[in-house]
Write a structure and sequence with these properties.
Oligomer: single chain
Number of domains: 1
CATH superfamily: D-tyrosyl-tRNA(Tyr) deacylase
Strand content: 35-45%
Distance between the termini: 15 Å
Radius of gyration: 15 Å
Length: about 150
């Protein structure tokens, strides 16, 4: 499982010119799922996302987690995070799970995040052609792979 986490002041998802999800102040999380992902990957990522201390405290030091700032999460599936671009000019997505396998994992991630976070999260529409808009604050962006935890 791979995620790109962006600290945002605003993020939204629009599908067919209709706003489907919108949040302010928190994290936009793009998630790529692969067949090798397990329950442990889901739990590890959820804990990491909820507890990552990347928000400024009163001294302007990145020392606060999402819960401490009463922020929100917008979770968007993005299979292209598993793109392999080593050969040629056309990316290969062989590591990315197909929809039939990825959707149940995505749903488990939502459930785990809501449980660990203690409130409902905002989501994109799995498999949809989405327009994702954001105001990256900082900018602060992290790329994390559950298969490279150290």
């Amino acid at each position: 499982m791979r995620v790109v986490i962006q600290r945002v002041t605003q993020a939204s998802v629009t599908i067919d010119n209709e706003l489907t999800s919108s949040m302010s102040n928190g994290l936009l999380v793009l998630i790529g799922i692969e067949d090798a992902d397990t329950k442990e990957d889901i739990e590890w990522f959820s804990n990491k996302i909820v507890n990552l201390r990347i928000f400024d405290d009163a001294n302007k030091i990145s020392n606060l987690s999402l819960n401490k700032i009463d922020g929100d999460i917008l979770l968007v599936s993005q299979f292209t995070l598993h793109a392999n671009t080593k050969k040629g000019n056309r990316p290969s997505y062989i590591r990315a799970s197909k929809s039939v396998g990825a959707l149940p994992v995505y749903e488990k991630v939502i459930t785990q995040l809501e449980s660990d976070f203690g409130k409902k999260i905002f989501i994109g529409v799995f498999g949809a052609n989405m327009k994702v808009a954001l105001f990256n604050y900082g900018p602060v962006t992290f790329w994390i792979d559950s298969k490279q935890k150290e």
